[in-house]
Automatic annotation (TrEMBL), chain B:
A Pfam family hit: BPD_transp_1
Membrane topology type: Multi-pass membrane protein
Native organism taxonomy: Bacteria, Pseudomonadati, Pseudomonadota, Gammaproteobacteria, Oceanospirillales
Name recorded for this polypeptide: ABC-type dipeptide/oligopeptide/nickel transport system, permease component
Keywords: Membrane, Transmembrane, Transmembrane helix, Transport
Signal peptide segment: none
Length: 325, 324
């Protein structure tokens, strides 16, 4: 009894210490990810600032996105940074507010995709046998289906769909590729000794999958998430551009749709089209940069930047030394 | 042989899934699906045609499995009935007129994008850490992230509308009669340049990226070190040793991209008013012509499966290990 009375504080101390260690481990990992990696820094900067700007839209933009503030198709000026739309609304305010929904849809769809891909991929890879066979035949069939045309037809059948439905249909159609990659990685890890030892120790299947296998797949899972966000961002814009989305909701896609239906380019109001287009391109490009740097974690051979420069310098010095001797 | 048969069985299964999907979709629509489906045809079609039409699409009285078999039969006999927007033209006739344009545009643009992508990717990976390597993938990632419709509209605005270098719409000069003559072919080429460029711009980034990653993996192999030790020129190592091996996964990746290329065609053909499958799909979306829409999807699925099968054969030819 006396012993058990002593234990709780000791245990708490160990746990808090352990928490500190884990935090330190993650912080060092993050620091190592960014050190000497301009691609990752630039990608994070672009993605981060666009997210913050969309979140702070009501603070940054003075005008309401739905309010008429000027005459139609006014060019960019000091008052209206990105000009006005055909119906006299502030493009700057619209692009900030639209980012909120567009980015939520992109990340939401990517999150859904990632969850399905991880569930299917790990189950197929870890359990093998019949489970693997069934899951993989479904995955392979989904994989050969052309995603975007399928998405377009689905949206057309559902009528003008809102952002939530768009996120759900993108998420539920684009998980197959990720599931395949996660499966093959799981199979590679599955027969390692630490998994066998966990099985022998009698750990539950759920714990083996979540605690032993999943952390080893984290770079692939995160890479897949970022890659799918790019795809979802473009797919959403595409659906809405074709008029399949709900045109009353302001997103980057519906901005393109309105610009196109008002023939923005032809009447010379290029800003109406270019601003949301560039917003998507910059966000997608930023995500692509992040994706490249995450790829370098799952496949260290791809590393560039500072490492290559150091290596090159040392090689040059070595050659110079040899030439001297 | 076993490999090919297994793949063929798989593609057959995939086609049946696609047909079943097309069958289920209208039945999942809220309300009365048949009336919703033909709402836009009301007034255009005489009632008896409509009734015959519904029967062909499987909307017969009776249990669902019976409807399903009626539908499968009409698809397999390639008898998809008349379109709604261009009534009474048959869906299959409309499709047949549009397919060559899109196959030409999508096929050629994919070949060009793969070719350029492989060259830039090879070059970038061989100059790791230098300017080309850091600039090219980044630049093309941003270009590729631009919505294809916006890229196409921008090109349309600049080269067709402002500079007047290229025609504004159609696949060929509508005043000319289709014939195998130089004037007609040159007109097709002239009209095809801008859509082609727009499609290539959207696709290049992915190929550079794939090729670069594949190259870097190959460049770490021992036989590359061996080739360097033999004193071969770096150009020869780059092309004959590294690129030869890195190309395999990249080329077979083409089949995965066909779906995206077809989706790109929807936007680009719409912008340039190009008479292909993409524009047809867009128009059928606009006029809620569900039979045409579904036929387009089915055709795209078939294209993707054919591309996959070609990729399988290519793999078999390029990788002798699969032959046993």
């Amino acid at each position: 009894m006396t012993e058990s009375a002593h234990q709780p504080p000791a245990l708490a101390a160990v746990q808090s210490n352990r928490f500190g260690l884990v935090m330190k481990k993650y912080l060092t990992a993050i620091a190592r990810f960014y050190r000497g990696n301009p691609t990752a820094i630039m990608g994070t900067f672009i993605v981060g600032s666009l997210i913050i700007m969309s979140l702070a839209a009501p603070l940054i933009a003075q005008n309401e996105p739905t309010k008429r503030v000027a005459r139609g198709h006014q060019p960019p000026s000091m008052e209206l940074l990105f000009g006005s739309t055909r119906s006299g609304k502030d493009v700057f305010s619209q692009v900030l507010h639209g980012g909120r929904i567009s980015l939520t849809v992109a990340f939401g769809a990517a999150a859904l995709t990632t969850v399905i891909a991880v569930l299917v991929g790990i189950s197929a890879g870890y359990f093998g046998g019949k489970v693997d066979e069934i899951l993989m035949s479904v995955t392979n069939i989904v994989l050969v289906f052309p995603q975007l045309p399928l998405l377009i037809i689905l949206a057309a059948f559902l009528g003008q769909v809102g952002p939530l439905i768009i996120a759900v249909i993108i998420g539920s159609t684009s998980w197959a590729w990720g599931a395949r990659i996660i499966r093959s990685q799981t199979m590679a890890i599955r027969n390692k000794e630490f998994i066998t030892s966990a099985e022998v120790m009698g750990e539950s299947k759920a714990r083996i999958v979540l605690v032993e296998i999943l952390p080893n797949l984290i770079s692939i899972v995160v890479g897949g998430f970022v890659g799918t966000s790019i795809y979802a961002l473009m797919a959403e814009a595409g659906l809405e551009f074709l008029g399949l989305g709900d045109p009353t909701v302001i997103t980057w896609g519906t901005m393109l749709y309105w610009a196109q239906s008002n023939s923005a380019f032809i009447v010379g109001a290029w800003w109406d089209m270019v601003v949301p287009g560039m917003a998507i391109a910059i966000m997608g490009g930023g995500l692509a940069l992040l994706n490249m740097s995450i790829d370098q974690i799952s496949n260290p051979k791809l590393k560039t930047g500072a490492y290559i420069k150091i290596w090159r310098k040392q090689k040059a010095q070595m050659i110079a030394r040899r030439a001297r001797s | 042989m076993g490999f090919i048969l297994r793949r063929l069985a798989f593609y057959l299964a995939a086609i049946f899934v696609a047909i079943s999907f097309n069958f289920i979709m209208p039945r999942l629509m809220p309300g009365n699906p048949v009336d919703a489906l033909f709402a836009s045809a009301m007034g255009k079609m005489p009632p008896e045609t409509l009734a015959a039409y519904k029967e062909m699409l499987g909307f017969v009285d009776g249990p669902l499995w019976k409807q399903y078999f009626v539908y499968i039969k009409s698809v397999l006999t390639w008898d998809l009935g008349p379109t709604i927007m261009l009534y009474p033209v048959q869906v299959t006739d409309v499709l047949a007129a549009k397919v060559p344009w899109t196959v030409g545009l999508a096929g050629l643009s994919t070949l060009i994008a793969v070719f350029i992508g492989i060259i830039i990717g090879t070059y970038a990976s061989y100059n790791r850490g230098k300017f080309v390597d850091s600039f090219m993938p980044t630049f093309w990632a941003f270009v590729g992230a631009m919505p294809q419709a916006v890229t196409a509209l921008f090109i349309f605005f600049l080269f067709a509308l402002t500079l007047r270098w290229f025609p504004l719409s159609y696949g060929a000069n509508p005043d000319l009669d289709p014939a195998f003559s130089w004037t007609y072919i040159s007109s097709i080429l002239h009209h095809g340049v801008l859509p082609l460029v727009s499609m290539v711009l959207g696709g290049i980034g992915a190929w550079i990226f794939n090729m670069r990653n594949a190259m870097i993996n190959v460049l770490g192999e021992d036989f590359i070190t061996m080739a360097k030790a033999k004193g071969l020129s770096s150009r020869r190592i780059m092309t004959h040793y590294a690129a030869r091996n890195a190309i395999l996964p990249v080329v077979t990746g083409i089949s995965m991209q066909i779906g995206f290329v077809m989706a790109g065609a929807i936007f680009i053909e719409t912008v340039f008013n190009y008479p292909g499958l993409g524009l047809l799909m867009f128009k059928s979306l606009e006029s809620r012509d569900y039979p045409t829409m579904q036929a387009c999807l089915l055709l795209i699925v078939v294209f993707v499966l054919i591309a996959n099968f070609i990729a399988d054969l290519l793999y078999l030819w390029l990788d002798p290990r699969l032959r046993n």
